[in-house]
Amino acid sequence: MTTFEQDTMQPTPARQFEKVCAILEQNENKPQRLIPILQAVQEEYRYLPEDVLAFVATGLDVPPARVYGVATFYSHFALEPKGKYCIRLCDGTACHVKRSIPILEAVYRRLGLSSKRNTTADMLFTVETVACLGACGLAPVVVINEDVHGQVTPEAVVKMIDEIEEREKAS
Amino acid sequence: MIKTKSAAVVIDGRTVSIEGEKNLLEMVRKAGIDLPTFCYHSDLSVYGACRLCLVEVEGRGILSSCSTPPEPGQIIHTNTEELREIRKISIELILANHDRECTSCVRSGSCQLQDIARRLGITKIRYRSIHQPKPVDVSSPSLIRDPNKCVLCGDCVRFCDEIQSVGAIDFAYRGHEAAVVPAFGRDLGAGECVNCGQCAAVCPTGALAPASEIEVVWKAIHDPNTVVVAQIAPAVRVAIGEQFGSEYGLNTTGQVVAAMKRMGFDIVYDTSFTADLTVIEEANEFIARKTNGERLPLFTSCCPGWVKFAEQYFPQLLGNLSSCRSPQQMMGAMVKHTLPAQLGRERKDVVMVSIMPCTAKKFEARRPEFRTAGTPDVDFVLTTQELARMIEESGLTLNKLNPASFDMPMGFKTGAGVIFGNSGGVTEAVLRYAVGKITGQNPVDPEFEEIRGEQSLRVIRTEVGGLELKLAIVHGLGKAREVMNQIIDGSLVVDLVEVMACPGGCIGGAGQPVGRDIAARRKARTESLYNTDRLLDLHCSQENHFVNECYQKYLGEPGSRESHRLLHTHYHHRRRAGSEEIILAKARQSGEGPLTVRVCAGTGCFLRNSQAIIQGLMKHVEASDLGDKVQVQASFCFEMCGEGPNVAVGDTIINQATLEKVINAVHAELAQETTGSEAS
Lengths: 171, 680
Hints:
By secondary structure, chain A is of the alpha+beta class.
């Protein structure tokens, strides 16, 4: 059993698939539950793999084109694998006037990314902008996975990235 | 305030009574005002996206008339300065993002965007173009998808989903990137599309259009070394005149044949001839099954859109699909089988061109089943629209040509072969034959009125020589899906099911001339085909002596071995999505290959709960510590859907699998491997 326990750090495809089945069951295979289903699938895989979307479409008896349409409509859903750390930078009105763009540029520079390519080759970081996080009082805001950081500067965000990288190297 | 009667509205100062109209757009059009629309089709759900049918309702402001129900007393304005400006802005914004190479567009002259822009007096576009050319999808043999010409009205999406229940295309992405695409942004030719082409028929622009084979056909005609043989489907002759300004439904058979001869087609045959042949083969198949108590209902197989649909979604019923080829393919097979010898030419020198009302026929002609000795039985398929364009290109005026007749023998037909173009026509033709075959006497009155009609599903009881028959006639694939599900759950028991993918049958095919008044066109075409039958001397396929001669010379009896070789085919299950398999539990193992267990997660097996087997098996593998020996995969189809759930343990396939059966098989297989390796 030890081998399996080691694997729990990286969920095995078996477990992920079991999870997809469980998600479909929890939502009673209802087509109108498509969005929560996709959210839960993305939680599991960190993105929406094409074959899993095809499986979900079959399970809900919905054309795959419809599932693809929903998955591409919402910017929250990703069809490409995301990095282990997802950096979401707010570029809503408040953050924008508090100079969020220089922060974005600094992050792109630090990670060698652009608006076209937003995940690092080592799958550690994904950089996204969002329209508003609803935390305008903290502007400019950046969220790294679940952690919210307010009133950040380009230097502060670059430092956070440095720290994450070091931590990852150490482990 | 103008006084109105209780159930009336006032439109631009005139009182218009409400008589069951569903929305204000219908009211406005009834008042004789033709508000422009892209996204409104009375057969489809209301979408309200194009914003062209806006009206001002006093007290409520500006509303889209298509999505506003009429209420007594409403005072409506359709032509205010503000409304006119809004409509112009909508069109200008669409045009700013549109590939405006109109002169070289397939829909030039029949484009609704062109028409509306002209009607609204658009003379310049005030917005800067941000149009980024996108690649044109030419992957489908039947259709071309050009996203640069899409106005996002969604008519195609709704037709495909609501009427056909296929959903091969849908909206994807958002904002200015929004587009209509097949699943996963793949090519149309790779997905679930059944090639019916109704998306193109409802498309107001050239964003979806039938794929053209005009150039290759001209090339064959101009090649002095080839004999170009054409066949014309019944529905073509009652629709092509529309392209030349004739009244709807006018039968122009003679003129079409004359035009084709003058264009350089060497021989022109009538697909109705092989429709007669189809009737005889299919009716015999039907009578045999009925009297022997074999697999019923029998499904007709003339419609290639329906055949692909059945292959994708109802693999368990493929055995019920008539093995008869369609009339198009029977003609191709007969021509290529008989003509080369008669003309002293080689098979490769005979080029078979079909003129069809249908885009799916292009796909059908390319099916590998319909190739003989490496070449197709039907080389090229032109739609009615394409033939009309070739006639125009030749400078011929269809209406002014002296009629000419088909070539013999395969230009000879009975009325039974002509009504094939109407929904219900195949059934009626089969009944006319069956009456003759069973009672020994051809029907006195060959018209089976009860079979005819516009409803998308007609279930009829009839009696032929003491034989009770229950028949279902369906058009539209969504309706066909309902019927299939009822047959599967046993709530509908019938003997014969005729399915046509397009509204009204082939006369409503997507290769026919298109236009907004499609319902009137379809009605006139249907009536014209029935009239053509009435005007012919013979009405039953068994009376076609050239067909009978074909049996004597080449085929023997209906259903003979030679008939089967030339006139019948087989079907196979098609996977809906890509064929990749999902590896669920990857075996961690060095040395010899792990034991692979593939569990079908396709539709049929999924419904029979293959998911529980997958989960149970993975839990078992984990619990029994077999993770290094067993790899679990989800497969998409084993093509044995009738016996699902299907599981393959190594090379052994288990039908009607249960978790227990699978686990036992896995252990048996592993035990065998162990003894095997110990022995060696």
